[in-house]
Amino acid sequence: xxxxxxxxxxxxxxxxxxxxxxxxxxxxxxxxxxxxxxxxxxxxxxxxxxxxxxxxxxxxxxxxxxxxxxxxxxxxxxxxxxxxxxxxxxxxxxxxxxxxxxxxxxxxxxxxxxxxxxxxxxxxxxxxxxxxxxxxxxxxxxxxxxxxxxxxxxxxxxxxxxxxxxxxxxxxxxxxxxxxxxxxxxxxxxxxxxxxxxxxxxxxxxxxxxxxxxxxxxxxxxxxxxxxxxxxxxxxxxxxxxxxxxxxxxxxxxxxxxxxxxxxxxxxxxxxxxxxxxxxxxxxxxxxxxxxxxxxxxxxxxxxxxxxxxxxxxxxxxxxxxxxxxxxxxxxxxxxxxxxxxxxxxxxxxxxxxxxxxxxxxxxxxxxxxxxxxxxxxxxxxxxxxxxxxxxxxxxxxxxxxxxxxxxxxxxxxxxxxxxxxxxxxxxxxxxxxxxxxxxxxxxxxxxxxxxx
Length: 453
Ligand code: HEM
Description:
It comes from Puia dinghuensis. Keywords: Heme, Iron, Metal-binding, Monooxygenase, Oxidoreductase. By secondary structure, the protein is an alpha+beta fold. It has a single domain, classed as CATH 1.10.630.10. It has 19 helices and 13 strands. It is globular. It starts with a helix and ends with a strand. The chain binds protoporphyrin IX containing FE. Protoporphyrin IX containing FE binds next to helix 14 and helix 19.
């Protein structure tokens, strides 16, 4: 064997079977279309290529987008140890929001998840229901009635208040609430543009955009640091999430979290906990306003409810919420980066490939859902009216990184439905909300006619 033969035998590159899709030039040419309307663009591509396609981003970043439930299951559950949150999203997010659960990876993520998860068990959340109900009642006391009212900002404020109160059950001044909420929105908006339009990064040294976002985030962290210090000095007892975080102890050392760790986790719970719920409730009210039968059912159940426990467990409430999240999943897409080469079906791809799980497309696929585009809460109920588990349905993700706050969110939304539909009734307008897919899937606005009952 001569040198040349040996050389050609040993250096051949592995051959990957990447799904069909777009080259990096095509990605650049389509960048504007994508950043203006990512959901329409991805849905169009799914139709063109099948349930899975690829896009090669500049810098040789290989993306695979999929709405195939088998592929999603492979990445999030079956082979989850081979995947982590990608640098593209979690890495950029961590720079602004810190290293809390949503943005961390590996051993650190696992250690934090084990520490925090018990606090979100349905049983441990009982104490929070009273705080949630009280906050919802307060918010609804000043709820406006009239024609063409945009309920999105109202749902946003309500969910933000619930998130803050559940974390810190202390009165915060209106200025502190507004300041925190504004800082959150600013930093979040920056993060969305940063992820979706990476080309903007070239301008940061000149336009100061990133510096400003980092300053906003530092200010937010200082506000939370102040609240934590006041709490530590307080001798009263509390049943809120901050108390859960403060009293949680690592199994091995018996120690609690440091102040900086606490701040990161508080920020993440605030971030993950309010936007998602606000979006679901705004889309839900829009759908219900357009469906007389469902509206009457909700009003009937709300009025008949005797206690918060029965609301939280009500199957019909759950079915309506599930159906709203099917059509408008707040987490419309998730991402995972492969740690080593992997394969699924007849596809194979190298380490570093980012798989984007497109829940929005799957939730509306006629392969898995009958009359997929229509609002039918009944599809989530069996013959005896009990909630059914559906396979092609991922509102809270799946696998070990599944939403930690799912029980909390469902309870909050059920308590809201009960409180809202005993006081108000709603009717549709001609307006059809537009999709605004940021970190979560928002409506641009939702105009409804609202009346007191
Ligand atoms: C309708 C409401 C909500 C929806 C639809 C939702 C959805 C999701 C989804 C899909 C994920 C997984 C993302 C991924 O796999 O990349 C997730 C993660 C997470 N959610 Fe939620 N969420 C909601 C409410 C909440 C609430 C109320 C909290 C906290 C109070 C919360 C805290 C978190 C956290 C901390 C994670 C990260 C978990 C981890 O990576 O270990 N979420 N959520």
